[in-house]
């Protein structure tokens, strides 16, 4: 049995550009509303995987998990979410709050469907456009596991940032080691995602982004 059939894809980049933007905007607005413990459970789904899931509870053991062979997941326009601790995985209250935000953004919510209610499911049309009055921040972190939380890093440069820019020297081994340790501890504490550490280690971290990340970590630590 191929791994693509049994493996769940949670990568946002596997969605079409319009759906990627819609999903990021949804998570951003949820963050602003105080909903930070939601995460992606599935994005793109091949027809073969859809067939496999459809067979469950019918020709294959298990409970029925889907009622269709023609899911929008295979069109790269849909994504499913779940809720992290301390709530239950599919907490109705949280999903309903996310659904209400989705409506304002012109995103289709499965919780509004009649007869086949699917609260964890969200999707867009291929021609979806961002509604007037909304702006997508440069850094919207969309988690794909319950181990991390939604993050929105607003790239406003406070005065302190200028001082940090002058002192940051990416060519200094000592400074790079100290910075890696600082971010690694933040990852361990669940404050930021591991991708930030990997980008720093791979040389993909810009100075502006590093400064914004540093400020975010300090702010989040003070709120813990």
From TrEMBL:
<dbReference type="InterPro" id="IPR009045">
    <property type="entry name" value="Zn_M74/Hedgehog-like"/>
</dbReference>
<protein>
    <submittedName>
        <fullName>M15 family metallopeptidase</fullName>
    </submittedName>
</protein>
<dbReference type="InterPro" id="IPR039561">
    <property type="entry name" value="Peptidase_M15C"/>
</dbReference>
<feature type="domain" description="Peptidase M15C">
    <location>
        <begin position="68"/>
        <end position="123"/>
    </location>
</feature>
<dbReference type="Pfam" id="PF13539">
    <property type="entry name" value="Peptidase_M15_4"/>
</dbReference>
<dbReference type="GO" id="GO:0008233">
    <property type="term" value="F:peptidase activity"/>
</dbReference>
């Amino acid at each position: 049995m191929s791994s693509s059939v049994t493996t769940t894809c949670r990568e946002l980049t596997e969605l079409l550009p319009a759906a990627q933007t819609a999903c990021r905007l949804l998570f951003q607005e949820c963050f602003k509303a105080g909903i930070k413990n939601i995460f992606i459970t599935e994005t793109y789904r091949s027809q073969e995987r859809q067939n496999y899931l459809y067979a469950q509870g019918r020709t294959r053991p298990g409970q029925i998990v889907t009622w269709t062979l023609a899911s929008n997941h295979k069109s790269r326009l849909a994504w499913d979410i779940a809720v992290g601790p301390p709530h239950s995985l599919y907490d109705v209250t949280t999903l309903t709050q996310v659904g209400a935000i989705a409506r304002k953004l012109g995103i289709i919510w499965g919780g509004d469907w009649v007869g086949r209610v699917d609260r964890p499911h969200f999707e867009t049309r291929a021609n979806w456009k961002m509604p007037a009055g909304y702006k997508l921040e440069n850094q919207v972190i969309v988690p794909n596991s319950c181990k991390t939380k939604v993050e929105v890093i607003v790239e406003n440069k406070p005065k302190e940032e200028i001082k940090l820019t002058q002192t940051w020297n990416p060519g200094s081994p000592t400074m790079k080691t100290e910075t890696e340790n600082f971010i690694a501890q933040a990852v361990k504490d669940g404050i930021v995602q591991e991708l930030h550490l990997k980008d720093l280690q791979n040389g993909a971290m810009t100075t502006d982004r590093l400064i914004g990340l540093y400020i975010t970590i300090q702010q989040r630590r003070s709120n813990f």
